[in-house]
Amino acid sequence: MKVPISLLARGYTLHMAWFVYVLHFDRPDAGGSQHYVGMTQDVSRRLQNHQDGVLSTYVHNAVRAGRTFELVGWWRVPDDREARKVEKRAKTLARFLCPHCSPAVAAYRRLQATGSAVPPPPVELTEAA
Ligand SMILES: [Zn+2]
Asked: What is the distance in A from the centroid of ligand 1 to the CA of 35?
């Protein structure tokens, strides 16, 4: 996204949302890790950079080793400060956020895809006879 210089010169600042994202690799690294968590303001550009080996030594080495990755989740956060917090938490939780590694996430995504991921109607409790 390009912002006209004239706007910046007049003191306008650019507020773009931040995203925290999770990559799932087709196979684990030597330490058994199969995910990468990062933060960015432009997810598609970041993915291209990862693919090109421009960003992150970890992803660069993984791609060079022939491992492939897939974007399995991303979350919009209001600012970079929040993004750092969410990123930190997501690093420890990545496998629980990934549809390939967590059956519950996969099931929820399937429901979302069918439009059924709405909470069920409240259950009426009746006294056992
Ligand atoms: Zn995974």
From this structure: 6
